[in-house]
Task: inverse folding
């Protein structure tokens, strides 16, 4: 039995780009490998010159084994203990793995008759991209393109942004907040926020707007409401659009997202699957700060590797929310 084995190398501490012209995050994939660096400069692939952790998960038709034996090019490297969250490689195993994925090595884990093989195709490009993003190319701590440039030139990590979440009045839908006529007037204003040069951003808006009980209304504060309406549906995904509006005319709607799925406690969340199995996903959240919803989380996993729900959480936006 042979399965491709997704694996993530995670840095405990990583450096961020400091130049304003540089992107605030990076999502990059090459063949069988993927890199996501968030707004703090932390990259889920590796973090040179800091403790590098390699985490392992296996996809098995049966219950995952409690222990697998690691071998690179036929050389035994000891066992890796697994639980529901996966397992961590030790320092020697991690070092051997980092060297092996940069060349055409036979990397595998076994348990009895089961065997899982890790593809190294794309690893060098992904690790080089991480070195580039973190400003490590040419330093001794680089994973791929090492050099003698001083490590002091590597930018320090960016602190995680902090957002103080505000209290909301309630979570429940309350259609009594506006009369039917007021909702019709509101829908006309909402629609205008969705029109761009390519047409309507929400294909299902007009159909759902015909429901006399729509849109859904929730109170955020005395002055502001949260409004939602089904925006689009697809084969295995659907989403609502969310707006913040004034409680009285003019409603002046501000569109938060057209990809929302749930709302609770001042947080809008989105979860979209790349395919029906749900082994590659996009997730986002927006948190109410008292005047608007701030984007506080974004994570992506583009490679569909057979793990329902995704093998790894790969953030591209990280914010510490204080309640």
Result:
């Amino acid at each position: 039995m042979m399965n491709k084995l997704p694996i993530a190398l995670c840095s405990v501490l990583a450096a961020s780009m400091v130049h304003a012209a540089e992107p605030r995050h990076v999502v990059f994939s090459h063949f069988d490998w993927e890199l996501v660096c968030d707004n703090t400069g932390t990259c889920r692939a590796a973090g040179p010159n800091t403790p590098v952790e390699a985490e392992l998960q296996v996809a098995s038709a049966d219950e995952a084994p409690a222990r697998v034996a690691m071998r690179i090019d036929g050389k035994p490297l000891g066992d890796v203990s697994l639980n529901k969250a996966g397992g961590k490689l030790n320092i020697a195993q991690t070092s051997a793995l980092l060297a092996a994925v940069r060349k055409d090595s036979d990397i595998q884990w076994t348990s009895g008759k089961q065997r899982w093989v890790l593809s190294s195709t794309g690893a060098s490009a992904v690790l080089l991209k991480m070195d580039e993003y973190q400003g490590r190319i040419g330093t001794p701590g680089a994973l791929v393109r090492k050099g003698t440039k001083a490590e002091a030139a590597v930018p320090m990590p960016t602190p995680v942004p902090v957002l103080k979440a505000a209290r909301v009045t309630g979570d429940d839908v309350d259609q009594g907040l506006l009369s039917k006529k007021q909702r019709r007037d509101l829908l006309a204003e909402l629609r205008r926020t969705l029109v761009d040069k390519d047409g309507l951003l929400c294909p299902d808006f007009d159909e759902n707007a015909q429901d006399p009980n729509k849109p859904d209304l929730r109170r955020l504060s005395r002055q502001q409401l949260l409004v939602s309406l089904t925006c689009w549906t697809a084969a295995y995904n659907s989403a609502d659009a969310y707006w913040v509006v004034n409680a009285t005319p003019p409603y002046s709607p501000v569109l938060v997202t057209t990809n929302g799925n749930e709302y609770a406690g001042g947080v809008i969340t989105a979860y979209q699957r790349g395919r029906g199995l749900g082994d590659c996903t996009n997730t986002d959240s927006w948190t109410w700060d008292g005047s608007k919803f701030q984007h506080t989380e974004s994570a992506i996993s583009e490679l569909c590797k057979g793990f329902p729900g995704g093998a790894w959480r790969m953030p591209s936006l990280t914010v510490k929310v204080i309640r």
